[in-house]
Fold this sequence. Notes:
Elements: E1 5-7, H1 16-22, E2 27-32, H2 40-53, E3 58-61, E4 63-65, E5 68-69, H3 81-90, H4 92-112, E6 117-118, H5 141-158, E7 163-167, E8 183-184, H6 188-193, H7 197-200, E9 208-211, E10 215-216, H8 228-238, E11 244-249, H9 261-271, E12 275-278, H10 282-291, H11 300-304, H12 317-321, H13 327-338, H14 347-352
Parallel strand pairs: 1-2, 1-12, 2-3, 3-6, 7-9, 8-10, 9-11, 11-12
Antiparallel strand pairs: 4-5
Amino acid sequence: MYGVLMIDIDSTSLTAEDVSLIKQAQVGGVILFARNVTDAAQVRSLCDDIRYHNPDILIGVDQEGGRVARLRDGFTKLPAMGKLGELFDHDPTQALSCAYDCGYLMATEVLAVGIDLSFAPVLDRGGISQVIGDRSFHQNPEAIIALSTQFMRGMKAAGMATTGKHFPGHGAIAPDSHVAEAVDSRSLDDIINSDMQPFARTLPWLDALMPAHVIFSQVDNKPAGFSDIWLKDIIREHLKFDGVLFSDDLSMAGAQAAGDVSARVRAAIEAGCDIALVCNDRVAAHEAADSAQELPYPNQNRIKTMCGQIPTWQGSLESTCRQSAYWQQAKQNVTQTFFDASPSDTAAADTINTNTSDNTTDPTDYKL
């Protein structure tokens, strides 16, 4: 049985405490961070060990590209999705092709090391958000819809389910909900007609959504991830979405309004989330696992849709990925487009390969 909690582990191999925690009845997932990663073979061994102790478990990671990439050493470098948006402004056809390749390449390598899913794509609009930045494909919803659809097509072709975040949109809010309360005072109509469009119009490609820890004050006084209005009335009833709802990390500052971690987990599940994430706080994880025993199990068939098509390990990342027919071509296309351009290349290539200071810091490094 898949449980309602997704938790993290301490290091690159399981400790006795980790094993005890992941064997708890309501622990249905593990999310990996940079501290859990040395190389591809180690990650695959770790994932196999996790499943040995709990076969009914999802393993996830944040492997978006750009600054947000937990898997680095030996893995193919991916551009920030904003670089796809910049390319789209110069050459839409090439950008859409590269978006597919990025999705396929990312998913193939993540699956190869035994991880079911990357929490991607980011569907937030680019704007003033301190934490979104170039994680967003673009400011224009139409461009986000076009690029993210191709990215998700690539993910699905490789065998990975998709997760759109952070519903209904975090890009218009300056404060970072990881470390501060974030409030959006726009009307529901304004949100629906702008930030929510990339989510609403890519639903056929989405298997899961992750709501934002943002309070949309004209709609509800609770963050979206704790709101019946957003999760039940809008996502389930209005949009008719029947996929998985993952809470964002309940250790984030934006979630603290709901109370202690047990209260946060209960509030997220009762509002409509299927799985609640509790990360980077081992005391809180144990408390959440204990208190979650009183909660109902999530819809098992719904959760199973997130299980990735994990290939047989062939001894190395490259050998394992070569079982996927398009991996080598996708890798070549992405690398040549974003990382091999020389100063003599076209102005468009120069633009998309420009390294600026805001691309050097991971905005989610609080949870590395």
